[in-house]
């Protein structure tokens, strides 16, 4: 007899099969007509394309940061796309991008006011991807397909972020059982242990007892470091750690809002951390400058 976990996995697979959702060649990537979209971490999964992709990378501006790739399987033209909220949004946007043709001609496309959004982002990655909860992303695909209004031609419109966000089931998708978020000075020992045991958080959580705890209702779900030590820049927002099962639900954003309110504030972000940049941009922070901090080159983002 299958276990309950096996039942859930098999049921999920069956639901996704009904929707005809599967990765390119069963490996990785979202196929759309002649294109395949995938996260840059998986270039090695396409040995037949890798040399072409790497050659075209040489034409990109040195300071351009991208995290996703669109490959044209018919002509080998490659687009390098920065999706600023790829890890943090259920349906991320297609942002600024550069397309390189086979003569090395570079075309630049800015992010439009009403950007295209991507559905089923789990197809872009493999199940071992650490940037977001892949299983939750699969469930999201099943969820919205069940709740999509039965209207003629609606699937031709859901690529528009403005239209997508207007749909009723998207108006409260941060957490369907949303509860009040609060901050408390003391971090429970069990929360400290669970975060320190997490492979992503543990190496950076040695002084986690000095943080504030993030609560959802009466449940501790993470921590945030807040310092009031720079009157010229305002409140410093430090590391934010969320338990894996609560990630991707908007709690980090809510915790930052609670911590800084309407004050001036700043934070340090790694140049390659696109998800943090998307989060802090949403909260009104802007890039200020780069500087060395703790033996690492980081970007200073500030909010007046």
Layout: helices, strands, pairs:
Elements (H helix, E strand, L loop, with lengths): L3 H15 L11 E3 L2 E5 L7 H11 L10 E5 L5 E4 L15 E4 L5 E4 L24 H14 L13 H6 L14 E4 L4 H9 L14 E5 L2 E12 L3 E9 L8 H10 L4 E5 L4 H9 L3 E8 L2 E8 L1
Parallel strand pairs: 10-11
Antiparallel strand pairs: 1-2, 2-3, 3-4, 4-5, 5-6, 7-8, 8-9, 9-10, 11-13, 12-13
Describe this protein's structure.
This protein has seven helices and 13 strands. By secondary structure, the protein is an alpha+beta fold. The chain has two domains: 4-170, no CATH class; 181-303, Aminopeptidase (3-Layer(aba) Sandwich), CATH 3.40.630. The strands form two sheets. It has a seven-stranded mixed beta sheet. The protein has a six-stranded antiparallel beta sheet with strand order 1-2-3-4-5-6, covered by helices on one side. A hairpin with a 2-residue loop joins β1 (30-32) and β2. The termini are far apart.
Short description:
By secondary structure, the chain is of the alpha+beta class.
State the separation between the terminal residues, measured CA to CA.
60 Å
State which percent range the strand residues make up. 25-35%
Q: What helical percentage do the residues reach?
A: 10-25%
Q: Which whole number gives the mean pLDDT?
A: 87
Question: How many helical stretches?
Answer: 7
Reported for the largest beta sheet, the result is:
7 strands, mixed
Key traits:
304 residues; alpha+beta; Aminopeptidase; 2 domains; seven-stranded mixed β-sheet; six-stranded antiparallel β-sheet; 7 helices
């Amino acid at each position: 007899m299958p276990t309950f976990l096996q039942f859930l996995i098999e049921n999920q697979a069956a639901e996704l099969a009904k929707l005809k959702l599967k990765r390119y060649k069963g490996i990785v990537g979202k196929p759309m007509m002649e294109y395949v979209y995938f996260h840059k971490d998986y270039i090695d999964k396409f040995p037949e394309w890798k040399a072409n992709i790497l050659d075209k990378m040489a034409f990109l501006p040195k300071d351009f940061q991208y995290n996703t790739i669109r490959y044209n399987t018919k002509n080998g033209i490659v687009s390098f796309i920065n999706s600023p909220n790829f890890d943090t949004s259920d349906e991320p946007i297609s942002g600024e991008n550069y397309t390189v043709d086979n003569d090395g001609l570079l075309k630049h496309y800015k992010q439009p006011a009403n950007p295209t959004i991507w559905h089923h982002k789990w197809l872009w990655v493999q199940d071992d991807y650490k940037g977001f909860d892949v299983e939750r992303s699969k469930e999201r695909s099943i969820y919205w397909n069940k709740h999509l209004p039965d209207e003629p031609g609606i699937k031709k419109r859901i690529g528009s972020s403005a239209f997508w966000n207007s749909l009723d089931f998207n108006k409260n998708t941060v957490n369907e059982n949303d509860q009040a978020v609060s901050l408390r000075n003391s971090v429970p020992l069990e929360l400290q242990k669970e975060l320190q045991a997490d492979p992503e958080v543990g190496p950076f959580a040695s002084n986690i007892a000095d943080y504030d705890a993030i609560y959802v209702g009466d449940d501790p779900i993470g921590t945030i470091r807040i310092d009031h030590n720079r009157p010229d820049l305002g409140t410093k927002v430090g590391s934010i750690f969320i338990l894996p099962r609560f990630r991707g639900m908007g709690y980090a954003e809510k915790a930052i809002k609670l911590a800084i309110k309407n004050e001036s504030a700043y934070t340090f972000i790694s140049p390659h951390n696109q998800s943090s940049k998307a989060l802090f941009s949403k909260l009104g922070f802007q890039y200020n400058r780069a500087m060395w901090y703790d033996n690492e080159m980081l970007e200073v983002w500030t909010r007046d």
